[in-house]
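Supplementary notes for students who missed Thursday's class. We covered one full example, reproduced here. Read the sequence, then the structure, then the short commentary at the end.
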Amino acid sequence: MTVAPQRLWTGTFLVASALVVGAPPTASAECDAVGVARARAAIAEHCVCALRSGHRAYVRCATRHANAIVRDRRCARAMARCTVETACGTRPRGASDRACPGPPSTTTTSTLASSTSSSSTTTTTAPSCDRSGLLAFHDETAFADAVHPSRTASFDLLPVGFYPHTTFELGGVSVELTDAGSAPIFGPGWLGFTTNFLSTGVQDGANNLVLTFPPGTLGAGAKVASVFPVTVVATDFAGCSTTTVFAAETVRFLGFGGGAGVHSIRITSPFAPLHTPIVNVGDLTF
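Structure (token representation):
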């Protein structure tokens, strides 16, 4: 029997679902600044306001990302209502272009770095890092022109099924599932993948997918699909990192390059008690 890759991890069971499960809203709940900033970043990146693709299509896209990231349902609904009132996707008379609820940016600190979220991408950098050094690429051709990758690591090297190892070498790349019992490998055909791919749930404080590249890697990327937004952190060999929010229902390319090269790529998602996004990763290019 063939089992399709799953979209959402709920409790102890994998379920294919497009529904977002969350706690019911309360009157005293306040919008989480970090969650709102992340939602706005995802909306800015994946829901293009300037395109005349239709206002409804923009609203659906924005609402999906808001629901997936903002845990406070009341706040998510407020963001959804705001997108209805914008002029994105069309230019009706009297439509407003005002920003949706929540602060446009937020700053947090850690022992190693400071993290600043903008409306499009979150960049995390140590004090000595060059902010413009490590760039994210969504166009595979532009990525190839910029960093001239020379190697591909394919999950075709592994058999389809539940690979028993959660840390292994794949064509020169170290692949690690930080908190998983196995590495589920699916065959081509699902989600637009043309080769085998890894499918796993990711979440802060639980399982992450970490790809570590050999010394001298100038750029690295992968074929990726994730119905719900995931956080992708690329770190260079100087310890500087850049972060982007990624979501795509079918396979797309995501890569990083520039600066001091790419040491690692970590994929995770904000903690949510009742759901965990499933990320699907295919061929790695570096």
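Commentary. Residues 70 and 247 are 15 Å apart (CA to CA). The mean pLDDT is 75. If anything here is unclear, bring it to office hours.
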